[in-house]
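hiii, so i know i said id send this last week but things got crazy w the move. better late than never?? heres the sequnce for the chain we talked about at the cafe, plus the structure i predicted for it. fair warning i was half asleep when i ran it
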Amino acid sequence: MHAIVELAEFIARHPENVLPRDTRDTISLLVLDLIGATAAGLNSPLAQTAREGGLAVFGEGSVDVWLTSQKSSIIGAAMANGAAASALDIDDGHRGAAGHAGAGVIPAALAVAQAVGASDARIADAIALGYEVALRVASARPVPTIITYASGRWVGYGVAAAASRLLGLNGAQTAHALAIAGAESPGMFASGTSKYQGSTVKEGIPAAIVAGLAAVYRARAGGTGPLDLLDDAQLYDRSMLTGDLGDAWALQQCYLKPYACCRYMHAAVDAILELRKPGRDIRSLRIETFPQALRLANERAPRFLEGGQYSFYFSCALAALRGREALQPVLPESLHDAQVLDLAARIELEVSEDFAGSFPAGTPARVIFDQGEGRQEMVVWHPLGDVANPMSREQVAQKFRNIARHTLPPSWQDEILAATDGLETAGFAPLFQALIQPEVQSSKGRTVECHI
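okay and structure toks below
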């Protein structure tokens, strides 16, 4: 049996409403975290251009573009929401996949669910299955074969899995949906082929959402794809693709990101925040890390937020001088902070043999910091938010408030927090309502148009 067919049968036949309680709790946490990331990235150039372009290309419709008064088609809204969620690099990720599933799977699943009036149980199942397929495909790739870690290469599989479940496709249709999505998702440029790693192309997640959703509707209409796409043993480890399906859920192994920068540098940021003494003169700052970290663009004076997200020098200087909140999220004016740029120009960044084999399972760092009282040293193996060093729900809620503070007033934050806290008892309807701008809610009498 083809690997895609086996995955498709699992998606189509998995019993409804049997997810374990801890899995459902994780879904609630991931949804909250992603809505926060969306609020933080909502007004970024990446998100703004995606919304404008999405409406122009995919048209208006009945599905909400989150936190705005706009509506678009299923694909247009999902693409716009995924773009905002991934814009500031503060969305969830997974060690084995070395990328981000949630910014593709959750916007796609909720867009389809809103359009078709899916039940709460089916929405939760779709999110779990979407993460499962996306993360298995990404994690099954042998590291030497990976030419880019851009999530757009594989997120489309998860989008197709979630949407197939919501639309009730059978196993054969789901298999072709996965195959079409895999064949037509963005190839992305190989690591090192462009210095513009921080452009608004970035992860390729919006394009993967478009490809994944289109694949499902094409498969439902009878379209077919290359079912052997995942069968090459040199490119995909079959045991990781399909072994022990249903025994555990991959989304429970996701990490959350407290800072709006590439996960590669979070261990260094954690150490800096622990060691920093505000107001002290920073004489030197040295960071030792794993080899793949030096493949980032690492601009010392990035011109755009995306460039800052992929720069050890900039993000670590910002953490050292301005503290945690300066990375929750990073504001455009930080790009012009003269003191930050001066320190970024002086930071030393080197590979340590101690961390040579860490990636992708780990992203450790050693920080050597002199703030006028001699050198201090700290090693962080598991940055905050890792499975081995998880964030509590209270910490995720505080992160949500911090990164949403420039976009959402406190009352709106409270409504979204209450809706995500209540997913287990009240379902998704309050969340759909909370994601509409308050003035739109009032004009509608606070009634959701779709029936969830």
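btw The chain has two domains: 3-256, 263-380. thought thatd interest u
miss u guys!!
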